[in-house]
Write a sequence for this structure.
């Protein structure tokens, strides 16, 4: 069953056809990878779905509801979250505070966060449990601005996860971290996403990560969908090899 569908979705920037009348679908429960070379249209597509851009034409349907004109906060409330843009990390706050802030935001109580905090023990308990799931419990009292890049990546996803999304966009979840850190980070994220049956879309340039952790891969090229299939089907697709991978993954 499709959780989200787009129909003839279009976004042009002058002569640049960022998203060119794209029909796109996300199946409920899958971990989908959205890939393509720089300028292929991936970010514009995600921006359209998450509400940061408005399409020139076309439709976006989420769980049977037309959300094409819904604002960002409406899409968050509907169940769409984005790891790196919905709730930015507050470096001057602790990890515990950052996750709790996301939970308070989900409950519509952010304006009175610190006056309500003492009376809402369940929020702090939930935030601590989320940190535990992401392996960050022992860092709960540290400031977000002083932890490692890998830990920041996990915290970023934890903050989005705290919104309890049904559809979670993960943009470059392993960028800026060492090669040895990438698999452990993705192991944690993948385990949480799959155990809680969250539909996830990963935008990532590391093809080893893409092939290992995704159920299906959608390839964008010049604003259009070039191919869609299992990791092995995409690996063997000659058109994709020429347009995206080049000789490294031939």
């Amino acid at each position: 069953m499709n959780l989200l569908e787009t129909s003839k979705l279009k976004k042009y920037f002058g002569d640049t056809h960022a998203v060119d009348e794209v029909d796109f679908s996300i199946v409920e429960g899958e971990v989908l990878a959205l890939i393509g070379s720089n300028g292929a249209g991936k970010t514009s597509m995600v921006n359209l779905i998450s509400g940061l851009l408005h399409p020139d034409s076309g439709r976006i349907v989420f769980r049977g509801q037309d959300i094409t004109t819904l604002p960002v906060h409406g899409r968050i409330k509907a169940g769409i979250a984005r790891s790196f843009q919905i709730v930015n990390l507050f470096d001057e706050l602790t990890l515990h505070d950052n996750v709790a802030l996301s939970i308070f935001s989900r409950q519509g109580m952010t304006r009175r966060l610190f006056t309500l905090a003492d009376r809402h023990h369940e929020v702090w308990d939930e935030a601590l449990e989320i940190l535990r799931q992401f392996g960050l419990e022992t860092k709960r009292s540290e400031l977000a601005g002083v932890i490692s890049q890998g830990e920041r990546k996990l915290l970023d996803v934890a903050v989005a996860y705290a919104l309890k999304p049904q559809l979670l966009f993960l943009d470059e979840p392993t960028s800026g971290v060492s090669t040895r850190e990438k698999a452990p980070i993705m192991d944690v994220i993948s385990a949480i996403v799959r155990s809680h049956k969250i539909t996830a879309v990963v935008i990532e340039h590391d093809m080893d990560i893409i092939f290992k952790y995704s159920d299906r891969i959608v390839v964008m090229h010049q604003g259009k969908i070039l191919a869609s299939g299992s990791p092995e089907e995409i690996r063997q697709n000659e058109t994709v090899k020429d347009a995206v991978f080049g000789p490294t993954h031939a």
Q: What stands out?
A: The chain has a mean pLDDT of 90. Residues 38 and 52 are 19 Å apart (CA to CA). The first strand starts at residue 2 and ends at 13. The radius of gyration is 18 Å.
